[in-house]
Amino acid sequence: MSQVSPRVGIVLVSHSDRLAEGTADLAGQVSGGTVRVVAAGGTDDGELGTSAEKIGAAVTDAETGAGVLVLPDLGSAVLTVRAMLEDLPGARVVLADAPFVEGAVAATVTAAAGGDLKAVAQAAEEAWHARKL
Amino acid sequence: MPESSETITLAVDLHARPAGALAVAAAQFAAAVSVSTGTKTANAKSVLGVMGLGATVGQQVTVAADGPDAATAVTTLIAILADAAPVGG
């Protein structure tokens, strides 16, 4: 948990570029800006959808030595993420099953605190139980 | 295990950014740390839990810790709450 150790990176995969970017901004600000949170939203031509190329580039960008957690917004993004992972053998990537916004914020805060990939993934998945009211 | 607690009156609403700062700081301690408004209690290491408190300006909030570094944990988190800038979000 030393301040100099690399942080787990976060990749936010959304069908919408703006949703991914906005959630990345939010998670980055809440956690104090010490974690690499990379948005991978929309298709290659800017339409609603997902892009294996964008996700792959985001994973590479987010990796600083501690692994990467990938959060999809909807179930159909999972197929694209899985296809991308097959193209990146050996990458230290975990795909989280979590609510998108809450999972992104919880995972990024845990990464900022120096949590390892397992702890960051667990923080995202525990977000299913977080109540707002 | 040493226990420690301290209460502060919030100068600002406990919005997302101070909640994040609190959770990041709390995670550095071995002690179990909680934040309580009297009616609700959250694990201070859980940003979503802290945000879910819905703690607002003027409310009394208690930080309690139980563990080897409990006293430092409480001092650190109370300082973060005291320093939280009065901005939205």
Q: In words, what does this structure look like?
A:
The complex is a heterodimer of chains A (133) and B (89). Chain A is of the alpha/beta class and 133 residues long. Chain A has a single domain, classed as Phosphotransferase system, mannose-type IIA component (Rossmann fold, 3-Layer(aba) Sandwich). Chain A is 45% helix and 14% strand. Chain A contains five helices and four strands. Chain A has helices at residues 17-30, 52-62, 75-86, 100-112, 117-126; strands at 9-14, 37-41, 68-72, 93-95. Chain A has a four-stranded parallel beta sheet with strand order 2-1-3-4, with helices on both faces. With 89 residues, chain B is an alpha+beta fold. Chain B has a single domain (3-83), classed as 2-Layer Sandwich (Histidine-containing Protein, Chain: A). Helices cover 35% and strands 25% of the residues of chain B. Chain B has three helices and four strands, in the order βαββαβα. In chain B, α1 (16-26) packs antiparallel against α3. The mean pLDDT of chain B is 92. At the A-B interface, α1 and α4 of A face α1 and α2 of B.
